[in-house]
Design goal:
With about 150 residues, this protein is mainly α. It contains 4 helices and no strands. Helices cover about 50% and strands about 0% of the residues. The longest helix is centred in the middle third of the chain and has 44 residues. The mean pLDDT is about 80.
């Protein structure tokens, strides 16, 4: 039994040649064309006299690239440092003494206020924030009154 091809139904379909399809004219080679030799190894000769020149150019190119990379890295690092410095300066304008990598700022009492403030016994209950503020304002008032009395 003959083998059935998957294209067997298409074998009976008539093919129509398009009138716009034309075969190209065959190429005529000129009679003086240089034919290729049987072996082309003679054309692949590497001149080793160029080797030192190529190697010196390559080493100088690599040195130049390394110096450019170092300059670029230094420039990028200086830009990042300058940006960080400007950010720290802006933060210090808002909060003097602020260090982003440092600890939190903790308010400290000034020595003149600490000396003028009355001593609190450890047995009494801790004061509320409002009572503490009233005591500090009273101490400031008494300190300013005593300094104005001394100057008069």
């Amino acid at each position: 039994m003959p083998e059935k091809s998957q294209y067997a139904p298409a074998a009976r379909a008539p093919l129509i040649k398009s009138p716009s399809l034309r075969l190209p004219r065959p190429v005529n080679l000129p009679p003086d064309i240089h034919p290729l030799p049987d072996t082309v190894t003679a054309y692949f000769v590497y001149p080793f006299t160029l080797e030192p020149h190529v190697l010196t150019l390559e080493s100088s190119r690599r040195a130049t690239l390394a110096s450019h990379e170092a300059r670029r890295d230094a420039y990028l690092r200086s830009r990042a440092d300058e940006k960080e410095r400007r950010k720290r300066d802006a933060l210090r304008r808002i909060a003097p003494g602020f260090e982003p990598e440092g600890h939190l700022l903790v308010p400290t009492k000034r020595s003149s206020l600490a000396a003028a403030a009355p001593a609190v016994s450890s047995t009494s209950q801790p004061k509320s924030v409002m009572e503490d503020l009233v005591d500090q304002l009273a101490a400031l008032d008494s300190a300013s009154a005593s300094s104005s009395a001394k100057t008069s």
